[in-house]
Amino acid sequence: MYTASAEGNVITTEHSDAESLAWTLAMRARTTRITRATAAPNLVALLNAEGRRDCIAAPLFADGRVVGVLCGYDCSGPEGFEEGELAVLETLAREAAGALAKGSLLDEILEERRKLAEIVEHTSDGIVTMSSDGKVQLWNSGMEEISGYTAAEMVGAHGLDRLRARDEAGLDVMVDRWASGVEIPAQLQIIGSDGATRWLAASSTPVNDTDSRPHLLILVVRDVTRAHEVERLKDDFVATVSHELRTPLTPIKGFAATLVESGDSLSAADRATAARSILKQAEHLERLVVNLLDAAKLERGIDGEGHDAIIDVYSIAERISSEFRSAHHDRVIILDGETNCRARGDELFVGQIMSNLVSNAIKYAPADEPIEIRVTNGESGAEIAVTDRGPGIPQSEVERIFDRFHRLGNVLTRAAGGTGLGLYIARQLAAAVGGTITVESALGEGSTFTLHLRHPARLVAVS
Ligand code: ADP
Q1: C or N: which end of the chain has fewer Cβ atoms within 10 Å?
Q2: From the alpha carbon of 423, which atom of ligand 1 is closest?
Q3: What are 93-146's pLDDT values in tens digits?
């Protein structure tokens, strides 16, 4: 127990132990008056020990428990403390206990406030509060992080004008007019201080005052930009795939309908043309499905195998070029370079990459132009270069041709009926064996696609 004593205007506090006079009187839990002449011996001993002649004590209660005691000592004059002074002390003790209770209530409120402020400050969610006239009152650090604007810049600002808040359709959202009933959508897009668009999942709670008038808006937001981007890419992918799959279906259905409806009246040559067209489109559809499945497999992380064996690059190139030579008798496919060429990788993957590169060269270069495959030991590892004398690729497109479904717009490459997935697959396979593919091309002259593989002696982790 702590005792506060006042002498004149000076108040001192000290710790009193269980043996003290104040403590002993407090434990009686009732207003008490003692003097050396009349008190019980233990109390007289305490009065003596503390150098007191007499004492009145009124306990302080909180929730029915004694939490302290108010004591008066050594009343001047021969009468000692009177009944009336006892009553005054009791009243004072009640007041003091009330003040103490209020004090601890205030402490609790301040503690709650502190905790709340800490939660608001440290949560990763953005929290904004806005008054009914649309002025920002609170801008927590989560909001600073998400928007790039500091509380100093935003508190007192008018709504989210600075962030150009818009809904999913791109229409402005007047967050500042919330009190007039403007709905805050669950998805908001804003422009951060760096000029980049951010997508927010928003949840807003209007708070009314005691007269049921709009008083405060609490807006809690979470940055969902990444998830939004993934969703958009997925949508784009599904749209592209369905478009790609539907494209060959249109001529298939058209020719098939012609054959069903007026096949008898067509000449044998026209019927054969229609059937051949159906076959060609069906083959294209098949290629598309096979490539799509390959691409999906690659996106799921190949198959978890290491694909990190030591491979004989030249013999793979030999196998692929002889396969292509036997399938395309009319084409000249030259293989040269270093026969003793090894690398780290996977025979099947490297063979597949080469196939995709050589089949492109065959597809896009004129039939009378040769295709050259060169195998060399480069500085950082083996290289397989496939060179054609085809139309070439504009500089602005050399990276984009590795994107899914990306095909050049020129008539020649369109007519070749590709799926736009071959190079995408090739690059994924190259990454799986720790390699890369680069392109050098000159319009009207031709292109060289080079697969760079890792040196057999160099052990590098493949992700
Ligand atoms: P596909 O050949 O099935 O269309 P790819 O992903 O293999 O798909 O190639 C993407 C695009 O890159 C092709 O459609 C073509 O426009 C262009 N391309 C690829 N290889 C060559 C090449 N050797 N010469 C010219 N253009 C090429």
Answers
A1: C
A2: 6
A3: 999 999 988 998 999 999 999 998 888 888 889 999 999 999 999 999 999 999
